[in-house]
């Protein structure tokens, strides 16, 4: 089976299914799997209780952890030539833009710009899009206490910041897949179609809309 990409980062909003899809793909291809270790962040639950007080610490910690994790997996793995991850480093900047004050963001961006050149880059990004209603339903279903009060406005803001970034970037293909009405967890046929679209086709740099029927 011909593979078009060796490192695929799966991105998307909170609760869209990034980790679930990354795990399924990694299992099928026996690949290296990079998953965000969000539970290690000591500021996460406090952020949702008091965003203004904890946002800067939260985002710095996440950025440092993502940088460390991606660099740790930078070397080519002969036994696992394909890599899937459930995030990419740009996530740090997108969430920081949404959560930080202007002064905090200025400092954050200086650190981000220092780190970015040495971070492993994906061959393509798969962006999972879903309705805000579905995101909130998924968040409720997985039951993380600190996520239960995330507002629809917060999710909408994050979604818009992702899409705005992807419209402007010129570095890699972005595969935009609307999963609002797609159950890739339980519908094996739909999952196989997603897998084929990602792994057996090549796409131009910029946004590429994927339609699964």
Task: Describe this protein's structure.
The structure is a single chain. The protein is of the alpha/beta class. It has a single domain (7-210), classed as Rossmann fold. Helix content is 49%, strand content 14%. The protein has helices at residues 18-29, 44-49, 51-72, 90-99, 102-115, 132-142, 152-168, 188-199; strands spanning 7-12, 32-34, 83-85, 124-129, 173-178, 206-210. Strands 2-3-1-4-5-6 form a six-stranded parallel sheet, with helices on both faces. Strand 5, helix 8 (188-199) and strand 6 (206-210) form a beta-alpha-beta unit. The longest helix has 22 residues, at 51-72. It is globular, with a radius of gyration of 17 Å. The model has no long low-confidence stretch (mean pLDDT 92).
């Amino acid at each position: 089976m011909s593979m078009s990409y060796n490192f695929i980062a799966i991105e998307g909003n909170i609760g869209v299914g990034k980790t679930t899809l990354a795990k399924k793909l990694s299992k099928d291809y026996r690949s290296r799997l990079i998953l965000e270790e969000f539970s290690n962040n000591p500021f996460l639950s406090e952020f949702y209780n008091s965003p203004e007080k904890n946002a800067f610490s939260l985002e710095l910690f996440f950025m440092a952890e993502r940088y460390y994790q991606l660099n740790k997996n930078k070397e080519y793995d002969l036994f696992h030539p394909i890599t899937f991850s459930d995030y990419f480093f740009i996530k740090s900047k997108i969430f920081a833009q949404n959560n930080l004050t202007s002064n905090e963001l200025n400092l954050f961006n200086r650190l981000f710009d220092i780190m970015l050149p040495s971070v492993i880059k994906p061959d393509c990004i798969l962006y999972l899009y879903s309705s805000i209603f579905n995101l909130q339903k998924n968040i409720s279903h997985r039951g993380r206490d600190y996520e239960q009060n995330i507002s629809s406005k917060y999710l909408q803001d994050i979604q818009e910041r992702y899409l705005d970034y992807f419209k402007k970037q010129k570095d890699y293909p972005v595969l935009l897949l609307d999963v609002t009405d797609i159950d890739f967890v339980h519908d094996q046929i739909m999952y196989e179609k997603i897998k084929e679209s990602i792994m057996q086709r090549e796409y131009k740099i910029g946004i590429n809309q994927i339609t699964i029927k």
